DNA sequence: AATGAATGAGCATTCATTCAT
DNA sequence: TATGAATGAATGCTCATTCAT
């Protein structure tokens, strides 16, 4: 038992070490800068060993994507605590998403990795993590509905899906075009975000 | 004159042949499945010949992206003709965007290629094509404002930016998650889209 | 006759234009930066046309090498006029060679192109141009011998060969290592050259 | 320990095999005939494997250049043992250099690879190997000076530089023009070399 | 003579994955 | 379990030369 436990712990540590190394590499070299040679070097493990912990490179990405989604979930959960009304909470979630992107650009990329890359397919676990986030929004929307602050024509589940799509789209746009919009049209990221939030708020309030 | 014309035409044909072959390949193997060997094989041209028509692989992508944006612009232009009021036109544009994606999934990907891939930089021409689309939306929003049908707090330019971000985000979501949402939550793509349109409409109407 | 003459002149002009363009390119991009595409562009001629004037790329190089050798010959001829005694003339030739290298580094490279690259074989004409230079040195050495200023054990022809080998070797060394020698050993190009000249002078004086 | 040792030995053997194959190829196809495909074929290794042993093609060249310089150093060291006086030693070095060229033409080319090709930059190690050779000559020249057999005006360091430049230049000349000189002027390589040695000897003796 | 489009072998380098030890 | 050496297909791009018009 003793030994088994230690072994298990060591294994867990290795697993985490690989993920941390991968993160570090991606932070430095970007999402596509990750390669197994670098991971091996960074972890001080043999390349073959990596494959004992992860079936392939994609699985590392999946694990990090999962981690990112969980972090995002936490960020959302935290953000809604400060707000009183459900509508304020929904707005808080948008802001939290944006701040998450600013603070952890890599994690944001990882969260939406599967939204961008066709080739990859989400695992059950990843789908679950998405569902959890979605469900949080659904519940708040439901409260807003009970509250009569949400437009009664809006279905909470539908809305939750839309909020995710719109917000990710907006952040991606800011990421890629933010600078150029600022330069040519003089509109700051914050302003864009505010406009977006305003549209959504107007769009859903009763 | 005769000969020169024929030559020119042949050259134009080759150019188009390369683009068409590239499209075909991407349709089969995805955006990142494109490679110069395949293009050569598909066009029956020598690899070197490709480089007489396009400086590098990226230029092929840029040409196709430009083509896609122009097609999208046309689709938008066409879509607004059928609608009477500016607000209806804005809604029509969202729908046109969705239909464009359904009809030409590859083109849709190409339109936002530069929105997704950090490494690529848009040429002047590509920026122009984006600007043209954006400007169309700005003008309609302005009419809606003049019209008193647009919420006076909304700035047409800001709105145009947001509309693009939100819509692309929504379509991407539908692309990647549409099937799974249908399966697990029983909500169809159309319903999601309708919800999105409704939110936007509510969000911007006076 | 008239027409024939004009044609001939035009042909000669084209020929020269190709050489000048090649020089310009090599000045900018180095000896190995020369390629037929660039020459075509620079001369405004079709690539195929180049091959009407030069059998292949190598022939362009050969022509330029010949030109360089002729220039060097002129430089030598000029340099010896200022000196009175044969020994002084020989020294002047070494200096002229060095100055030629400093003034026209490309020409210097071209002169010794065939001394460096195994694959190339000199044409009859190129050999002649070398012979001419060599002969000039032989004659001066002979004068020095008649003069009793040259060590009687030295054969003028042998010496001429050696002078060329030694001098080119020294200049090449200066070219490649000059900077590093200056940096680490504090010896300037001029000093190296002076030492070399001194050794040769001592080595051949009676 | 046993296994580790064997592994290490095998690795060393592969490393050497790659170098030997590269040598063989260069012997056949010249310095610039080396390419990674041929090396892979010759060694029966996969192309990727080569890159486990050498970071890139240049590193193979550097390793061979280093090897060549070390061999040359040995040849010099050996050559001076047979001579009594410093001046004789200096002459022996010239001869050793020539014999080295005759025996290992490829190695001779590799020694001066970096003297010819501008694009390449010497590693620290390569510079060291050059310095070692140079230093040997400096020391002998110093002895000759102490000895009063060297012209007091000659600085040992300067001389060492010159000796290298002159000798390499002479050997290159012999390499490229030796045959033609023999044919047209009836002077043998040995005679040229003797003349050169004589000039140097006269040039430096007190 | 002049054109210039077409050729295609050539090349250095990368990297996810495997497998014998 | 762990290793790490080996694999080899994949890829973007170049350029001297040819040849039909």
TrEMBL record, chains A, B, C, D:
Keyword terms, alphabetized: DNA-binding
UniProt-listed SUPFAM superfamilies: Homeodomain-like, Tetracyclin repressor-like, C-terminal domain
Residue span(s) of domain HTH tetR-type: 12-72
Record-linked PROSITE patterns: HTH_TETR_2
Presence of keyword Acetylation: no
DNA-binding region coordinates: 35-54
TM annotation in the entry: none
A family per Pfam: TetR_N
Protein name in the entry: TetR/AcrR family transcriptional regulator
